[in-house]
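chain below, 603 aa
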Amino acid sequence: MAITSKFRKNSTHPLQRLLNYARRYRQQIWQATSFSIINTILDIAPPWLIGTAVDILVKQQDSIIGKLGIKNIVSQFLLLSFITVIIWIFESLSQYVYDRIWRNLAQNIQHALRLDTYNHVQELDSAYFEESSTGNLMSILNDDINQLEDFLNFGANDIIQISTSIIILTIGAFWILPPFITVAVLLPMPFIVWGSFAYQKRLETRYADVREKAGFLNARLANNLSGINTIKSFTAEEYENARLADESEAYRKSNSKAIKLSAAFIPLIRMLILVGFTALLFWGGMATYAGTISIGSYSVLLVLVQRLLWPLVNLGEIFDKYQRSMASANRVMNLLDAPINIIRGDIPLHITEVRGEIDFKQVTFAYYNREPVIKKLSLHIPSGKTIAIVGSTGSGKSTLVKLLLRFYDISSGTITVDGIDIQKLNLHDLRRSIGLVSQDVFLFHGTVAENIAYGTFDANDEQIIKAAKIAEAHDFIMRLPESYETIVGERGQKLSGGQRQRIAIARAVLKNPPILVLDEATSAVDNETEAAIQRSLEKITANRTTIAIAHRLSTIRNADRIYVMEYGELVESGTHEELLERNGIYANLWRVQSGVRSRSQNL
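prediction:
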């Protein structure tokens, strides 16, 4: 099954994958890069200005500016001061521009990457989520994408500026210094670059492990917060504290390994830089004393080398940011590369024209790495009729609904709606034509009205209230503190199970789909509420194809036809009365639930 592709690793470097993704922003990238280079060139100018000032004092009329025809010392310093002001202004402006572009670029890429990744996640099939941790997905969508911001804000600019500085230093040194001094000054450079890449390679695996441990930690936190009431009811606080401590300790140790390696980088680079600076200080001084180079040029190089070589110390921090970001980028891109196995069809299904005739033809389905739960099942559901499916837990009832909605795709056979294979139908149109009321009701944090109108976002207050009345929800809603404007809390935790279920039914009523699926829709309501919902179901199911899945047989006894499932197969079918007369599985279930004893039991 295609789910195994989720674990495939892309061999392309994460930076290349990130750059490929960011192609839409290449104009911004080029602009930011250009201003970073311009700013670096202007930032290197002060050492030259200092050297020129020394040159004026030493050579006076024969200085560099004096050779341009300006012999007066005051005029030379005035011109030098004017050039200084111009350079300083443009340096400040270029820094403002590149800083603004880089930071906006980081925000734009972050925003687009988060939305694209989330949209991609929404397209993945249910099997993917069964194999993935919600906390880990949250870690990728939030923490890992945020991790890119720091590098895009500053790290990329730092790399460009240091690279530009190295090029300028190399050209300047060869132009001014004798070859043997130039070689001595630049000798550490290859070792610094090689060392940086060697460290980068070793840090890569360590930060990948850090991000993985962060995902596990987030998964534990998300899982525990979701199940906080279970933890409390079983007095498992100490147990969960211990489990969280294990995950946090693993994250701490993983970070410590990365820190141990990254912290050693700067001291080693300092030692290499010391070699180049000391070589210039001594051999350059000797060359100046011998008259090989001027005092001004020597002054420029001393300041220039200090300003250009010492920032290489920052390579440690830059590569640290880089590796953290690349580890995060790799996780984000792997999620983006997760294959979408549910392929959208291209045949439109207009909701106003849907009759709701459904056919399962020789359908077989198995969850990943498990035995088939549906086995060559064939089922015809006539348009506008109400059919019920009952059976023991694990018989495959709810799986049929998931297959109809294409949460999963079947292994073999076909499922059709109005004679059209659902795999060829537009997926959005198919799901819009089906209203699902699940036994696992999910309400979003928001008002009661917002949750009823979810999926029918243009509904007005009158339509919302009408749907609530049909679902027998209006009365309890009006007793809430702010009636329809009451906040239900995360997952609807401020409401009872029965209240949540009635809101879910109202949501399906408002959607007004041609096909209605009730998957244990009354499992969490009391007998009084169940009776009220039963009355409303007569209105809800009128002129609508309805599939009702139930354990409580009293809720489906009036269905046009009832099917009994066992081990993925339909073993009985008929009306309520017909199935009782057959005295099979359904009749036994009915006796158990209704308390009626069979004749043999009475004897």
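The radius of gyration is 36 Å. The chain has two domains: 13-337, 347-433+549-603.
thats it, cya
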